[in-house]
Amino acid sequence: MLLSRSTRAYGFALLSFVFFSTHDAIIKALGEGFSVVQIVFFGSLFSLIPLSLVARLDKDKSGFMPRHPWLMGMRTLLVLVSLTSAFYAFTVLPLSEVYALLFITPLLITAWSVPLLGEHVGLPRWAAVVVGLAGVLVVLRPGIVALELGHFAALTSALAASLAMVIMRKIGNQERSVVLMLFPALAAIVVMGAMLPSVFVPMSIGQVGALGVVGVLFIGAQLCVIAAYRLAPSVALIAPMQYTQILWATLYGALFFDEFPDIWVAVGAAIIIGSGLFVVWREARAK
Fold first, then answer.
1. pTM of the entire structure?
2. Is the Cα dihedral 276, 225, 220, 41 positive or negative?
3. Cα–Cα distance between 26 and 132 in angstroms, integer?
4. What residue ranges do the domains of the chain occupy?
């Protein structure tokens, strides 16, 4: 019996966030011995292998030049900042704590959609954004817990990712998927490659293999997300699946890094997730 489109969409979405979470756990493990520059460079380099296969299977032979070069350039820069910041945060903070902060991305997208896309956001959704930001304060507890550079890196990643997603809303239907993935990968290779000689540390075969897995998981996760959004009857059905990452973060943190989130991280994450779900529900209802 064939599965329905919605069921397949859920399956792809859940699989994508398993890939993302596993990808992030490997990065955290590698971060103990290598700089973020080296991890980003080789992860992006290995991602070209599955990406080249995707390009060969793409029936659109119109080339790889973007239709909106300036917006594509801006998105590429934002994706690079987001990835680098998130990678650094994963290497210095517990996985669940990083995810709790990254989960404000949907709320920031809502806030940016007003000045940048001209969308209307009503008072209930603005209230959800404010409540979500209060959840961030619960996680960070400024003045009680010492804030580290990793906290600011996670927030920077969320900010850059939200702006990149706003640009995606403008050009996503006009640019090919392979182009959207290719340019950030090439930018990461060029920028990080320029800095690599100053921080390079020799790697074992196992560590090279782990970086190869990082690149493959990253492309696989993005392809699953694209498939999920194309199959789903509504974007609102897929967006909440991102929050399953907190479950994988808790599991991986406990099994491999001896990390157990404290009660305040759990409460703050619950507030942020609840606010994000409310925004998704309001957007679905508005449409």
1. 0.88
2. negative
3. 28
4. 5-286
